[in-house]
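Hi support team,

I'm opening this ticket because the web form for multi-chain structure prediction keeps timing out on my end. I have pasted the exact lines I submitted so you can reproduce it. The total is 903 residues across two entries, so I didn't expect it to be a heavy job. Is there a limit I'm missing, or should I split the entries? Thanks in advance, R.K.
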Amino acid sequence: MKAKIGFFDFAGCEGCQLTVMNLENELLQLLKLVQVVEFRELMTERATVLDLAFVEGSICRPGDRERLQQIRNRSKILVALGSCADNGGVNLLGSDRSLEVLRQHVYGGDLPHLYTETPQPLSAVVKVDYRIPGCPIDGQEFLAILQALLLHQQPELPGFAVCVECKLAEYPCSFDYGQVCLGPVTRAGCRAICIDGGSHCRGCRGLIDNPRTTPYHQILEKHGLTVTEILDQYRTFNIGEREKGS
Amino acid sequence: MIFKPKFNLISPKKPFSKQDLGRHQAMVAPYALSGLPDPPPISHWRAMQQTDVLRFVRSLLPAYEVLGVQNKRGRLFLDSLLDAADLVLEFPPAVHSPKKFLFPHWDQLFRFKLDENILLEPETAAPPRIIFGMHPCDLHAVKILDDCLFEGETDSSYRAKREATLLVGVDCTPDEYCFCTSLGTDRIAQGFDLFLHQREGHYLIQSGSERGLQLLKTHAPDCFSSEPESPLPLQVKQCSNKTQFPFESLPNLLQDAYEDSIWQELGDACLGCGSCTLLCPSCYCFNVQDKLELNLQDGQRIRTWDSCQLDHFAQISGGNNFRSSQADRQRHRFYRKYKYLWEKHQRTACVGCGRCARECLAQIEPVAVLNQLFAETPQLTTGNSPGAEYQPQMAQILEVRILSEQDRLFRLRLSQPIHFNPGCFVELSVFGLGEAPFSIASLPDQSNEIEVVVRRAGALTQALHRTQKGDNIGVRGPFGNGYPLEQFTGKDLLLIAGGRGLLAIRSLLLAALARRQEFGRIILLCGARNIEALMFPQDLLTWHQSDLLDCRISVTDPQNDWGLSALDISYLFKDLELNPQRTVAALSGPPAMYRQVNPLLFRLGLDEEQIFLNLERHMKCGLGKCGKCRINNICVCECGPIFSYSSIKHLAEAIER
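Hello R.K., no limit was hit. The queue was backed up. Here is the completed structure from your submission:
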């Protein structure tokens, strides 16, 4: 009996679902293990019961809460897929100003049919059993977590920072190139893909369990950043996580 | 700096049993058989032009996987070489170490299948490889890996790779992070198959093993049969970054630094990212985990690098983390590098390659840390004048108190505060007669004053008895570990002193009384031949009358003014009631007393770890050098004089004679 899995989305770019669909090398093997019963990007069928629901996006539109609650009700296990679902992610970038100001700024007027609330992670509405961080998620990590869940094991995320994977891959340190990097406080699991690409870590996978914010901020200050600039570093992906680290 | 117990010194040095010997041989035999470069053959030197090196590598490529430093995406990596022309032989020390090939981060131990309910393929044999171009420090790092991974149960996965890999060394130029010269790892005499020494416009190739020689014979026959060159002396480098003390002092330096505030400073600065250990060429701590294929049937058990700097490293079952602060983790790292593994293998587990410091965002640099510790440790100053460690400082006699006809107490003032644990000792000098060790009998109050008691016996002690208030004598020390008072807090203390053993026990008792509320019951059992031999009669009477402790006294001489029955110390145990679970016993006296009292303590229910014996009588030079304090395989002045019973019970010479 194959496990029934489904994919759902709320406010987000659908990049995490796309990452799953991009696993071409593994998809055929994967379909021997699971039955995809609902996936709006792929199929029109709906499912009444699911073993595993992977949910992408943040909760902010009217009706989102009810829809998420319904997904929860018909799923044995619910997994937050990607940072929007996990901690609000980039959707929270506008959270430092009022919704009115934001609407005016984005839409240039009052358009009631586009009303949204401040985005929230799934966990603000329903019980989230597991989470897969990242913007987008890492395909291999998705597979590893799916594997664990299919074997009724507890999936685990790396507890260490991106620096570990960065050193293992022998990438040069972003700081050596004068770039501020969130790698030292960001959860590994991405194989330092951004550093590999010549960029720096922006912290899309959220903070590690025990981020050393004090020494990290000292290092940022040594690199000439002010407190506001340091906090700005976290803004892209970690507004929803900031309370963890400070 | 407070003298801390040195118990960790003792444990690894259990005496060899036959069984151990068997294991030792098992460890050595495959290593020797493997053709690894130890011991070295007669070394063989030949000149090699740059073009010869290129031709040599070309010839190797079809037969071996040749790993060499090469430029990829604008940076230098050690990796599998496809074209000999890509090989870079002059590369900076920043290039990551060859550990990744000898002890890889992702190392398959075996494969398994779930449906067949277990196992299957052991790890496949390693491919024949040559690491072409290793700096001396990295060759030394391989020796450390050998020490650790061939010890005891040989790590076969490492051995397979090690045996199949030939090591070709090459000269280097240290940068500002290198400190190999401080650790003696800037040069290497053996531990490689071949070594390329850079000369003006060419190389001198030195063979370091039979395998290396054969490699040269097969793949560089012209070079092999060319005229021999005369050997170079060991090539010594220059580093600006260096420790201010010889590396042999490292274990001693750390001995007393366990509680140093520097660890907290490091902990406060450290990001806990683990880069230092991941980049280290000799760090090998690992995790073992299973990796399943997507079919959920096939899998492999793999070994991946771990780091003592990461959060989960010291997490044990139940979720508790026994090394949860970053300060403790940094300390552990330094202790393991410079002390623990030194004690096991007589080699620091650091080769001074500087990689940890070079890539540490928090700029934690071993040399700076060690030099700071050294600067805080005045008693270790040995560097300047030869023999300085033997040279006493002058101390003034503040008071001479006549305790008995034989015994005088001297109160001494030193030029600087003296930090010691109860049970530590000093060497007193009378110039012209020499020096002798004496236990410190006073409260360890961090002041610059101490009390010692001198019993008149030989020429030196007689001379000391002739000194007077205001005179100066020589003092060297303090030495030794002392009683582990911090371990005793919260416990009931059973202090047992025989004769002059009361000197150390007095210091311990005064220390305990100064923090009376931190201990449970305190019981002092004091025995001597006669009243005159009771070292501190006045103190004993005061303690006897005090509510703070239970002080019991016995003398064996029936003619005594105190009206004591003539009984030995075992009599004091007669109606002794104590809770063995919460009691620690600190003993100080002659071996005969230990032989008599130890069985009584066991009968009371104390176990071997709760009994601490003072072997002060064995002390001699205090420096662990003269060899006189060695009891079987233990150096008393280095690891003692205070020992738990369990750590010395196997030593016939300690208690039995």
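A quick check on our side: Chain A has two domains: 3-150, 162-245. Let us know if the file doesn't open in your viewer.
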